[in-house]
């Protein structure tokens, strides 16, 4: 089942009578796990108040391209930021306009950006969907039909409209779909099907190398990136196994999770799960060294100095890349400097297909941050995935891997 967990939905509301259903739609999207921010056109505010939408979304409500601040910031006395429309467009995992009026559809079809909502739709790099809602005659008007066709050709998703009795008393096509159906279709926007039927094994989080029964060596990995990749791979239709070190994160939907602690346990779990998988993504921050012999009882504070002898842990990524047949193997290189050069060295040393280099140890990026950027280093070249929320970044990485697999399958067919 498609899911809205961890999705950021920008809900555009235009000036139609069906706007009275918008608070219900916000609730349905939130019940599915999404974070929802509302954007109203000037006409929409004649039908529904920003205050209501702020209350049900628990997020700022946006109305104007210029000048005014979002409702909640006005309430808290904060200041609106310039270029907020671009930030909002980048924030969204999907833009859904419901209800979408005939007027809004016409403006969008012309590529206009004369208010906040049309500007956001033009600036969004995420999927955009519209749920038309209007009188049946307005819907069937050739002008509306040709505008909708233009939008469809431009890659916008169309939710409905439905058929039936209308607020104006007429009967026919043009009814907005019910909020429960719009929420379900919104979840479906993320189901790319790019890895349909393929097996993907992913590692995530830190490892824990015991020093004694209560102490251990670990690192600052939160597991967020690996978990986001697992969720993105499941959305792409893959059978996903996530082998996770100790994290505070909930299991992603539709993902088989195997929890481990040490690097050796992770190695064993990977080799149990990876056979038959087409993709292996090593996003865990695995300890390079572990104590040679963990104490069986708690080490007491006696002497002034204590020396721990460490030994190398097994190299999980290189061991998977050396399998025959080997899955498409992706490693991560968390670097504090020289990301590209270090990623290239790792690519060659581990004989993997792709190294995703990322900068850590800087504020707002890397291990514990919500956002990150990646440099995808392959034998054939380098692709930059710019800084964005880890959930979006994960989808971009899965899309990249899916393209590489598709190209490989094409080459195999050509040779056959
Ligand atoms: C009472 C009332 C109800 C309306 N209902 C709709 C509607 O359901 N669908 C629609 O496309 N336009 C409807 N309109 C017309 C739009 O509000 C009008 O075209 C407006 O310019 C839309 O602006 P917007 O697209 O920026 O929100 C209605 C107007 C009024 C006065």
Q: What's a concise summary of this model?
A:
The protein is of the alpha/beta class and 416 residues long.
Fold and architecture overview:
This protein has helices spanning 22-31, 50-57, 71-76, 84-91, 102-109, 116-123, 136-140, 142-153, 179-188, 224-235, 263-273, 316-321, 339-350, 390-415; strands at residues 8-13, 35-40, 61-62, 94-100, 128-132, 157-158, 162-165, 171-175, 199-204, 209-210, 216-217, 239-244, 255-259, 279-282, 289-291, 310-312, 328-335, 354-359, 371-378, 381-389. The protein is an alpha/beta fold. Helix 1 (22-31) runs parallel beside helix 2 (50-57) and helix 5 (102-109) packs across helix 8 (142-153). It has 14 helices and 20 strands. The chain is 34% helix and 24% strand. Strands 13-12-9-14-17-18-19-20 form an 8-stranded mixed β-sheet, sandwiched between helices. Strands 3-2-1-4-5-6 form a 6-stranded parallel β-sheet, sandwiched between helices. It has a two-stranded antiparallel sheet with strand order 7-8. The protein folds into 2 domains: 8-188, Rossmann fold, CATH 3.40.50; 199-415, 3-Layer(aba) Sandwich (Rossmann fold). The two termini are 36 Å apart. Residues 14-18, 41, 43-44, 101-104, 133-134, 138 line the site of flavin mononucleotide.
């Amino acid at each position: 089942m498609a899911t809205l967990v961890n999705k950021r939905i920008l809900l555009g509301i235009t000036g139609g009578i069906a706007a009275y259903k918008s608070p219900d739609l916000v609730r349905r999207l939130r019940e599915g796990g999404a974070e929802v921010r509302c954007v109203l056109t000037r006409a929409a505010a004649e039908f529904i108040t920003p205050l209501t939408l702020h209350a049900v979304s628990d997020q700022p409500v946006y109305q104007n391209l210029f000048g005014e601040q979002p409702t909640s910031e006005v309430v808290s006395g904060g200041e609106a930021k310039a270029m907020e429309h671009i930030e909002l467009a980048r924030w969204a995992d999907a833009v859904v306009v419901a209800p979408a009026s005939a007027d809004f559809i016409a403006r969008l079809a012309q590529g206009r950006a004369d208010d906040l909502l049309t500007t956001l739709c033009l600036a969004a790099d995420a999927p955009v969907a519209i749920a038309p809602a209007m009188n049946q005659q307005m819907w069937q008007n050739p002008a509306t039909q040709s505008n909708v066709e233009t939008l469809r050709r431009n890659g916008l998703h169309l939710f409905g409209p439905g058929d039936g009795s209308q607020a104006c008393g007429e009967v026919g096509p043009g009814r907005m779909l019910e909020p429960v159906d719009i929420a379900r279709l919104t979840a479906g926007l993320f189901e790319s099907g790019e890895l349909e039927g393929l097996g993907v094994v992913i590692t995530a989080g830190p490892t824990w190398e015991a020093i004694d029964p209560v102490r251990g060596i670990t690192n600052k990995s939160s597991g967020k990136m690996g978990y986001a990749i697992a969720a993105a791979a499941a959305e792409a239709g893959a059978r996903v196994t996530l082998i996770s070190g100790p994290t505070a994160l909930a299991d992603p939907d539709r993902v088989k999770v195997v929890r481990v602690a040490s690097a050796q346990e992770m190695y064993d779990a990977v080799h149990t799960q990876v056979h038959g998988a087409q993709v292996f993504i090593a996003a865990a921050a695995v300890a390079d060294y572990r104590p040679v012999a963990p104490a069986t009882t708690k080490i007491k504070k006696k002497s002034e100095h204590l020396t721990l002898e460490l030994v190398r842990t097994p190299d999980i990524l290189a061991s998977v890349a050396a399998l025959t047949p080997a899955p498409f193997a992706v490693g991560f290189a968390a670097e504090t400097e020289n990301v590209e050069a270090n990623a290239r060295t790792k690519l060659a040393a581990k004989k993997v297909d792709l190294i995703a280099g990322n900068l850590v140890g800087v504020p707002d990026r890397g291990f514990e941050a919500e956002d990150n950027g990646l440099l995808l280093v392959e034998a054939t070249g380098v692709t930059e995935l710019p800084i964005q929320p880890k959930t979006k970044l994960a989808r971009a990485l899965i899309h990249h891997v899916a393209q590489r697999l598709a190209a490989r399958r094409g080459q195999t067919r050509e040779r056959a």
